[in-house]
Amino acid sequence: MTRIAVIGGGRIGEALIAGLLESGWMTKDLVIVETHRERADLIVDRFGIRVTDDVADAVVGADLLVIAVKPGDVDGVLTALGKAELSSDRDQVLVSLAAGVSTSRLESKLPAGFPVVRGMSNTPMLVGQGMNVIAPGRYAREQHLELVTEVLGAVGKVTAVVETQMDAVTAVSGSGPAYFFLVAEAMADAGVGLGLPRDVATELVVQTMIGSAALLDSSGQSAADLRAAVTSPAGTTAAALRELERGGLRSLFLEALHAAKQRSVEQGNSAE
């Protein structure tokens, strides 16, 4: 079994560990780096895996190194990795889930030729339904992408893109859950405004979103086709959609995602 060292015991690191254990990984093949004692103790109690505060110690014998810290903490991790016994001659690979950190930046701090994969996950990984997108660095080979795909597949779906598309990925799926939460919040508020109790309005909205996403995923039909199937001529749905279109919903989403992409570019540039 592949040995995995997860650097960062926050929500992303914990979600990944939970998914791996549920997928059949053995506790002996997992180690996590966490410097905050209370958090480390919680992880040990919850999962029974080894926790250390020493990056160099964690990566000994590891096949896959996962950086799961905030972007501002990546430099500290890379400094610690520079003191570890890493070598491009060994079949090790590093995947970074830190937003905005390019593969070239990671490669520049690692031994020459060390394979790196950049990843972007989103918060539904906390319930095993994440959208994980990966992009290979210069030295990552097909077997490295297969390994990273297998590991991230424990917490959701995985797809690969070229790195130049990662800022767009950030705008669509990385930030995407917040858009849905905002829509859910607005719909529930509107339901309350129509006279429904808040708990009822919330239940209606949540299940409608869950069911609609499942239908879109499994039906083989496009979103446009499914929308048309729900929309009877001169009916209630048509009346509601007319108002949303009049309010410029499509252009608002276009502008919002463009803004998110531009911010992702800016953050990446400032981190270089």
Protein traits:
about 270 residues, single chain, about 55% helix, Rossmann fold, eight-stranded mixed beta sheet, alpha/beta, 8 strands, ProC C-terminal domain-like fold, 2 domains
Could you characterize what this model shows?
- This protein is α/β, with parallel strands linked by helices and 272 residues long.
- The protein folds into 2 domains: 4-161, NAD(P)-binding Rossmann-like Domain (Rossmann fold), CATH 3.40.50; 174-268, ProC C-terminal domain-like (ProC C-terminal domain-like fold).
- Helices cover 53% and strands 13% of the residues.
- It has 12 helices and 8 strands.
- The chain has helices at residues 11-22, 37-47, 55-58, 74-82, 103-108, 142-152, 166-174, 176-193, 198-219, 223-230, 236-246, 249-271, and strands spanning 4-7, 30-33, 50-52, 64-67, 93-96, 116-120, 130-136, 156-160.
- It has an 8-stranded mixed β-sheet.
- Helix 6 (142-152) links the parallel strand 7 and strand 8 (156-160).
- The protein is elongated, with a radius of gyration of 21 Å.
Short description:
It contains 12 helices and 8 strands.
Set down the secondary structure blueprint.
Layout lengths: L3 E4 L3 H12 L7 E4 L3 H11 L2 E3 L2 H4 L5 E4 L6 H9 L10 E4 L6 H6 L7 E5 L9 E7 L5 H11 L3 E5 L5 H9 L1 H18 L4 H22 L3 H8 L5 H11 L2 H23 L1
Parallel strand pairs: 1-2, 1-4, 2-3, 4-5, 5-6, 7-8
Antiparallel strand pairs: 6-7
Helix pairs in contact: 7-12, 8-9
